[in-house]
Amino acid sequence: MPEVRDAAPVKVESLQSFLLANEEALATHLQNDEAWMQENLWNYQPRPQDLAFAATGNEKDVVMRFKRAIRINPEARLGLYAQLPPSYRLDNMVPITLKEVSVFNDLAHMNPDEFMRLQPGQTIAPLHVAVSANDEPDHGLDIGLFTDSGTAYGKEYGFGEQAFGNPNLEYGTQAPFHMAFYHESPVLYALGGFLKRTYPEMRIYQYQSLARFAFAQGHDYWGWRFMGLGLHYIGDFSNPYHVTPVPGNSTLSTLWVGLLNLLGLPDAQKEATQLVSNRHTVLEEFQSQLMTLQLQEGNHEHETLKSLAVEYPVNQYRHTDPVNLFSKVSADKADHVHHVLADTIPHAYVMDVNVEYTDLDATDELLDTVKLESGDAGFNQLTNTVSDLLADFSRHGSAYVQHILQAK
Ligand SMILES: [Zn+2]
């Protein structure tokens, strides 16, 4: 988007400095947001009153007070860094350790060469700020937030027990903040009320609202950063595995699995969780491997990258869009995407309940494996499918970005 690409460089500012400079206004802003979310969100768990952000002037705990008020992981780093695209380098890059970016122990999926430290006061292109923040929610912002997550803050935050997720994954507890099921049949909700206990809509609202707040206060670095944070969840919604419980399954078979679980045969549920988690991961890894390769080779005409080009005029963003439009478009493609995966990916990766895909160390060879398994035709079919999902992200994300920039 030219309005992002060509925006004037911004001055980097620490979170502490941003919060202290705007404490009074922010307290009111977050109070208003809380009231709005209670009124308008699909499924909202009110923020406990103890966690409300109060302007105390205490610089020592202002960052912690903010994290607790918006109910993210208190360990979240939120430091000053940029995460650059593959093979992209800036002059005088100062490295930053991955531990300063992410809360996780397993950081094998991150390339340390792509991360650079920023200093308060230096200037940087807004595009880098927004793009870096777009990946940031996956660096641990939504970890451990439930009463059964084994954390002290999870017991205070008011989100209740975790509704679903793959316990084999270190990032398993973030699932209900990055996935949501809005378009299931009433009978499925009736039996599986837990399916409604999801929070991406809340995150999208919070971050777009904080972004608009930061721009309105003249703190543009944080405007772009909060914009990027919210954009992450819109990107997640472009993957059907984030918006439907079991793509490829009919309501009846999903119910059957739930029923077996109720009857004390939890293996069925465990098996369904395993399959769906593997398929979800394989789809994202294929996309990531493919696009990384194109960026490394400078192949900017590749269809995955071209499908992200923004069409103008951009649609008007509405707060109901994440639920009614973004996730709906994606959910409608779920069965198709499942069938393409089943046709093009090795059976063990997506159809075997005894396999945890992430244990296979298969990602580095995934592109070659798909070609071997299903030939050029299968590889191209999967590439087209991914590109189509990326075009949805582009359409939806650009509406969200323009909505925020109206506050600038
Ligand atoms: Zn995510």
Description of the molecule:
InterPro entries: PLipase_C/P1_nuclease_dom_sf. This is Phospholipase. It comes from Bermanella marisrubri. One of its GO terms (molecular function) is hydrolase activity, acting on ester bonds. By secondary structure, the chain is an all-alpha fold. It has one domain. It has a two-stranded antiparallel sheet. It has a two-stranded antiparallel sheet with strand order 2-3. Helix 5 crosses helix 10 and helix 15 packs antiparallel against helix 17. The two termini are 16 Å apart. The mean pLDDT is 92. The chain binds zinc ion. The site of zinc ion has 5 residues, from helix 10.
Secondary-structure map:
Layout: H1 2-5, E1 10-11, H2 15-21, H3 23-40, H4 62-69, E2 81-83, E3 115-117, E4 123-124, H5 126-135, H6 152-156, H7 175-178, H8 186-191, H9 200-216, H10 220-237, H11 251-262, H12 267-296, H13 303-306, H14 321-331, H15 334-344, H16 347-350, H17 366-405
Antiparallel strand pairs: 1-4, 2-3
Helix pairs in contact: 3-9, 5-10, 9-10, 10-17, 11-12, 12-17, 14-17, 15-17
The structure holds zinc ion.
Zinc ion is lined by residues 137-138, 178, 232, 236.
